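Input record (one chain):
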Amino acid sequence: MAEQATTSRSGPDAETAELREELVRNREEVLRLRDLLIGKDAELGVLRGRVAEMEAGTARLLGIVARIRALVPGFLGSARAALRGRRK
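The corresponding structure, as predicted from the sequence alone:
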């Protein structure tokens, strides 16, 4: 009953004012969360760019390693054969 008395005393204008205040708070929260999301999205874009750079660098290094490995076994085999020939 106390709630009814308070509500009846405050009237529809007070309820409207409370709803408007809540709406303002909700809009502010939406703006805050939107700004946070935009910031995180920008941060994610930077990190994706870094990953792409690292992947490109890694691909180059793997290509170099593959070429060296292709050359080294032949070189090592001939060097090993030359060294064995000298020892005998």
